[in-house]
# Entry
Amino acid sequence: MGNKLGAQGRDGPENLEDLCKKYHFDKKEIKEWIAIFSKHCGDKKFLTQQEFCEVYNMTFCGDPGPFTKHVFRTFDLNKNGLVDVKEFLTGIGCSTSEDINTKLEWAFAVYDINGDGFITKAEIVDITYAMQKMINRESTLQEARIFTNSLFHEIGIDDRHLITKEEFCSRTKNYKKLLDVLDCEAL
# Structure
């Protein structure tokens, strides 16, 4: 059946083979992510938000702190304040997915800070600014506001201040600037 990942009973892949298929990882990649996870959690089998931030600190040269708390929120699928290996690998799979729908659904969850099912302009500004700080870009809030206003204009809803998940996912697929930001490119 394959190597079990624990956290049984929740939605998502249960073993390495399922994760490889769903997120197009090869087994070597999965094992590398598991090694990174294990290095930071030790025998506990989960990461706290602080430990999760340490993993991000290894990857980005800027200040990942503000952005990391939002990513942690999306990885913590059962909302218990901890991320187990299955949640970690599922989050990595979604956030790095080549499938645009998977990536946009994950991005919506990151941008939807308060979890109300809508993204506001203020939420997009906050996340965009945090992402730019994470990649060590000298960004300003004004640049994040300009990006947000152009996003709302580009997808045809600049007269409103809210985006639903369906609107976000369907209308942003071809907005290259957003896709670049999601891949941690500078504004």
The two ends are 45 Å apart (CA to CA). The first helix runs from residue 16 to 23. DSSP finds ten helices and four strands in the chain.
